[in-house]
Design a protein that fits this description.
Deoxyhypusine_hydroxylase, 2 domains, Leucine-rich Repeat Variant, ARM-like, mainly alpha, single chain
């Protein structure tokens, strides 16, 4: 499982990052094999984490044995094991419940929390059935890949849908760790989001409901998400940062800068914050990202290198990454 201990160069990290998301958009069996090979061939925790993430987003059952192997391997970095557990949850096979239960009390908090979250997602799916937002992402990935090949998006969508009606899901191209909570007034959702005593799964549901409310609620919803960056749970904060990156709202920049500047913050959070700042592309974050691009913390350093590369929008759009 282990690759050479030699660190990846900044150029190599950025190139492989783009390749991961290109492969994610393919959603076919060869792409799964290439992602697994990329994982095995790099020492980078960032790239391994992103490869595991991509495998989960593709929702291919043939990725489960490898992801299970990663989760079982206690010599792996907890960040990559966490991502493997999240990917298993995203794929959503009931037969994975026993594996997730096995690691729900793992000594690494980020692994244990993720396994409990994935279990709650699977249990919710078994009782309620997958909602539209959970059914659509793999199809949307194929549409994005078709668009990258020059097929008009509307034409690709019509072919994928067979001309029929399809339930609308979330506007975001991701398989989320929890479905959004039912629509409710923003203050109610924000209270659930920030309730540290609530079940993590319910807080995640509020998180995605607030995200989806941004078109209607505007800055108030973004600022509610920013408040959640002050939480005690590293796993939760890293997901908040991911969502802020999806939203690409400049309103979030001050809170993100505060988070990445906190030397005591979990590297998993700072890594996700760096990528969020890159996705937003704010001028005021550029110099800070440059400074952290030489950090001694590998995943932060590499994430900042990728984030700086995100300022070249064309390269990322060509790889099918929405920034």
């Amino acid at each position: 499982m282990e690759a050479s201990a030699a660190a990846e160069s900044a150029e190599s990290v950025c190139a492989k990052y783009l390749e991961i998301f290109r492969l994610r958009n393919c959603t076919d069996e060869p792409a799964v094999g290439h992602l697994i090979a990329l994982y095995r061939g790099t020492p980078s925790v960032l790239l391994r984490h992103e490869a595991a993430y991509a495998l989960g987003q593709m929702q291919r059952e043939d990725a489960v044995p490898f992801l299970t192997e990663v989760l079982h391997d206690a010599t792996q970095d907890p960040i990559t094991r966490h991502e493997a557990a999240e990917a298993i949850g995203a794929i959503g096979l009931p037969q994975c419940i026993a594996t997730l239960r096995q690691f729900a009390d793992d000594e690494a908090a980020e692994v244990a929390d993720t396994c409990r979250l994935a279990l709650a997602r699977l249990e919710h799916q078994l009782h309620k059935g997958p909602c539209a937002c959970e059914k659509r992402p793999a199809e949307l990935l194929r549409l994005e890949a078709a668009a990258a090949d020059g097929t008009p998006y509307e034409e690709a969508e019509e072919k994928a849908d067979g001309g029929g009606d399809q339930p609308a899901g979330s506007a975001f191209l991701s398989v989320d760790p929890a479905p959004p909570a039912d629509a409710a007034p923003l203050p109610e959702l924000a209270a659930q989001l920030l309730d540290g005593k609530a079940r993590l799964f319910d807080r995640y549901r509020a998180l995605f409901a607030v995200r989806d409310a941004v078109p209607k609620e505007g800055e108030a919803a973004v600022l509610a998400l920013c408040d959640a960056l002050e939480d005690d749970c590293a796993l939760f904060k890293h997901e908040v940062a991911f969502v802020l990156g999806q939203l690409e709202s400049p309103v979030a920049v001050p809170a993100l800068i505060k988070s990445i500047s906190n030397e005591n913050e979990h590297p998993m959070v700072r890594h996700e914050v760096a990528e969020a700042l890159g996705a937003i592309g704010s001028p005021e974050a550029f110099e800070l990202l440059k400074a952290y691009a030489s950090s001694d913390v590998e995943i932060l350093r590499e994430s900042c290198q990728v984030a700086l590369h995100m300022y070249d929008r064309e390269a990322f759009l060509a790889a099918g990454i929405c920034v």
